Amino acid sequence: MDTAQLIEWLSNAIYPVMGITGLYGAFCTILLVRRIGQKRFVNEAAGQEFLDSVRDCLDNQKFEQAAELCDSPPYWAKAVPQLILIALANRNRPVSKLRNLMAEHFERDVLAEFDYRLSWINTVIKTAPMLGLLGTVLGMIAAFAKIGAMQNKGTDPGALAGDISFALFTTALGLIVAVPLMLGISYMQVRIGRLQDQVQQFVTVFLEDFEAAAAKAGKR
Length: 220
Hints:
Blueprint: H1 3-39, H2 44-59, H3 63-70, H4 79-89, H5 95-149, H6 157-219
């Protein structure tokens, strides 16, 4: 295989590699969007309904029942019920310790997974334009090689323009892959921020209810 054939083979290989890269970026994006949706309540009313049920259990000192509620199918994938489950398992600790424990678990078990997925999407965003640029460079090398080979035979401007246009197409393709993923990351960061706000709000309400229930039990 001579140099010209190798360059042509590499140029053609850019397209399937670009396709695989774009598909993996889309897969990570869809997976992350679904995971964020699983971790948060659909709306404020759904979260309040859950907290009301937990509050009833706390008022009656039914901690095991509250734990079963948190670990039931509607809630076992959501962040707040799982954090409450951790707090109930450590309910003998002070409220300040419970708050810190819940925050640590949220960062380690939820946010760390999101950061992992975002890092892969960022990698795809950086890689796709570079692959496109590589395809363009290889295509331009092949085009200029044709110019050198055709000097004695006469150069067809139309054929060279087609080769250069085809070479530039890979750069455009890399941007087509990267730009939607960049918009997707911005959208997901907004959703992650909303999830954090929701978790902070609902965890604060739970700890207030838990402290009130503990105080009520102590007066009996």
